Amino acid sequence: MDLVIRDVRVVDGSGGPSYRADVGLAGGRIAAIRREGDRSLTGSHVLDAQGLALSPGFIDMHAHSDLALLRDPDHSAKAAQGVTLEVLGQDGLSYAPADDRTLDEVRRAITGWNGDGSDVGFDWRTVGEYLDRLDRNFGGRGIAVNAAYLVPQGTVRAYVMGWEDRPPTATELTRMKRLVAEGLEQGAVGMSSGLTYTPGMYARDAELTELCRVVAAHGGYYCPHHRSYGAGALAAYQEMVALTREAGCALHLAHATMNFGENEGRAPELLALLDEALAGGADITLDTYPYTPGCTTLVALLPSWASEGGPEAVLARLRDDATADRIRHHLEVTGSDGCHGVPVDWNTVEISGVTAPGLAGLTGRRLDGWATARRLLVEDRLGTTILQHVGHEENVRAIMRHRVHTGGSDGILQGTKPHPRAYGTFPHYLGHYARDLGVLSLEETVAHLTSRPAARLRLPDRGLVREGHRADLVLFDPATVAAGATFEAPRTLPSGIPHVLIDGRFVIRDGRRTDTLAGRAIRRTPVS
C-alpha cells in the first residue's frame, strides 16, 4: 500500500453504522479495508488515526468557485472543509459557452459572485475548453479540488438572444438546445437556471421544458434556482417539479429554502409536495446550506424589467430619476420579482462586499433605504454583494432531514465580509447540527454530504469508502469538528479536520494545506 490509515472509525457514506478498520490506499484508490482485529495491511506510509473518523470527501453541490479555482492554488476555503469536489456553473450564469460579447456581459453581471476576472485569462469559449483549462491550470498541475460543471441556461440565452425579455424564435430555441447538448457532450453534468436572475428569468416554462428534454437525453439533471423563495415559493417549487416531469428530466433543487415572513414554519408543506412527487416516480434531490441568511448581489433584487438589456441598460435606468423611482416602487411596495415577490425590508439587507475601493467602509452595514441602495449600485457598477437575513431556523432543520437532501455551500468567496457558509458549511453540518443538536446522526449527515450527491452526479466510484473507489477522503475528529467561520470573521478556517486526501494524495495534512494540486475536471458519465 502507498498509505495505510490505521485503526480509524470508518463512516463510509452509506448511512449505515460506522466501524473500526485499517484502510489501505494504492494508486489513488481504496485498495483494501480490514475490519478491526485484522492487522494484515502494510504500506510505505502509515497514519495512526488516533480516534479520528474517516469518510468520503465531501461534495459541494452548489459552489461559486468558477474563477477561484483558476486564480487560487490554495483554495483552503473549500479544501480545509474536506470538500473534494465542487459543482460549478450555478444559478444559470457562468463563463461557458460564450462568445466575446456574451463573456464580457456575463463577467460584468456576476462580478459580485466571482470578481471581474481581470486576473484570469479567459482563453476558453466552450464548456469543453473551460474543463480543459481546469485540468491544465497552474502549468498543468491542475486545481485544488475536483470540479464538475453545469451548463448555465442564462448564459446560453444571453449568447443566442441577448438580454431581451421575449420568447425565442424557433431558430433561437434550436440554437439554444444545440448549445446545451454540446455542453453536455463536452462533459457538463447538467444544466442550471437562475429564474430570479436576468436573462434566465425571461424564459417561460415551454422554453425550459425543451431544454430539459435535451438534458434528459444526455443523462444529466436540471438544477434551477427557481422563480421565488418568498411569495409563491411553493408554487415555484411545484412549477419545477411539473416542468421536469413533463421533460422526463431529473431535478435537483438549488439551495432549497423557504424564506421571508410568508414562509415561516412552512417547510413541511414543501416536503409533502416533494414526497408526493417522489412517490409518483419523480427523480428529485435538493441541496441546502446550514444557515438562515441568504447571499446574492444587490442588483439581483431589482425587478426583471429594470435589468432587460444587460448591465449598461441597468445603470442607465438607475441614473434616470423617474425610472429609478419606478424601481423603488416595485422594490418597496409591489414586491419585485428579483426579491421573490416580497417588498424589500432594507434592514434585512447587509452589505457583504463591494468592488470599488472607495466604498469599502460600507461593508458590514445594513442598508437604510433606496437612496443608499441606488447610489451603491451606480458607484459600484452593480458589483455589490449582500446578505439577506430572511431565513427561518425551523425550516433549515426540517429540510436537511429529508432523505433526498444533499449539502451545498452556495459559497461566494468575494467581498470583505462574505457569508460564512463559503468557509464553514460542511464542518457546521458535522459539528453543530449532527453532534451538538442531534438533528441528524453522524452517519446520516455524512451520507447527505457524500454518497447522495455522488449518486446524483452519476459517479459510480466516489461517495463511499469502498474497495476500488477513488481515494478522495476526509479524516476528522467527531468530538471537535466545527466551523471556524462566523458572520463576524467569515474567512476563519474550520477545526477538527486534520487530513484531506484527493486521489490518495494529501491536500490537507496535519491541519495545513500542502502544495498538492490533485483536483481535475470531472466530466459527465455518458449514457450507456
Present the secondary structure layout.
Layout lengths: L2 E8 L8 E8 L2 E7 L9 E4 L4 E4 L1 E3 L7 H4 L4 H4 L3 E6 L11 H10 L1 H4 L12 H9 L1 H4 L5 E7 H9 L8 H16 L4 E5 L10 H13 L3 E5 L7 H15 L2 E4 L13 H13 L4 E5 L5 E4 L6 H4 L3 H9 L1 H14 L14 E5 L16 H10 L5 E4 L4 H8 L4 E3 L13 H16 L5 H8 L1 H6 L16 E4 L22 E4 L2 E5 L2 E2 L15
Parallel strand pairs: 1-4, 1-5, 6-7, 7-8, 8-9, 9-10, 10-11, 11-12, 12-16
Antiparallel strand pairs: 1-2, 2-3, 5-17, 13-15, 14-15, 17-18, 18-19, 19-20
Helix pairs in contact: 7-8, 8-9, 9-10, 10-11, 17-18
Number of strands: 20
CATH architecture level-2 label of the domain at 57-292 and 391-414: Alpha-Beta Barrel
Look at the helices and sheets and give the structural class.
alpha/beta
CATH topology value of the domain at 57-292 and 391-414: TIM Barrel
Distance between the termini: 33 Å
State the CATH class of the domain at 57-292 and 391-414.
Alpha Beta
The geometry reads as globular
Organism: Streptomyces ficellus
GO molecular function, one term: hydrolase activity, acting on carbon-nitrogen (but not peptide) bonds, in cyclic amides
Domain Amidohydrolase: 46-508
Protein name: D-aminoacylase
